[in-house]
Design goal:
about 120 residues, alpha/beta, seven-stranded mixed beta sheet, 3 helices
């Protein structure tokens, strides 16, 4: 389980808050032959996000639009949150079948300037 504070720290450490990085979803699936291993199954750009104060979560969404969420849009709005909100969980809605997915890790692709939020199905 990852929290907003984890995201802020990882972005600072991994990419130095570089505003041009696009935020993407990375999909990990359990290996059919070895359930202890995860297989990378692709990624998709994230389009929007919102803070759900009732569920205490930062929710990322893939809505199919041409909008691309960037670190420059995301991080400044998170840095002004109060300390209680920093402990909100990170979630993702991919589609109707896969919504409210827990973000399990972070990654980056420096070559293509992508910051990746990993989910597991």
């Amino acid at each position: 389980m990852k929290y907003i504070i984890d995201l802020i720290e990882d972005v600072r450490e991994q990419i130095g808050n570089h505003e041009g990085y696009t935020v993407t979803a990375g999909l990990l699936k359990t290996d059919a032959n070895d359930s202890s291993k995860l297989i990378y199954a692709g990624e998709a750009p994230l389009n929007t996000y919102h803070i759900d104060k009732i569920a205490k979560a930062l929710c990322f969404e893939i809505d199919g639009s041409d909008t691309r969420l960037t670190i420059g849009e995301l991080i400044p709005s998170l840095l002004i949150l109060d300390m209680d909100a920093m402990m909100y969980m990170l979630k993702m809605d991919v589609n109707a079948q896969y919504n409210d997915m827990e973000i399990v890790g972070f990654g980056k692709n420096d070559e293509e300037q992508r910051y990746i939020l990993f989910i597991k199905i």
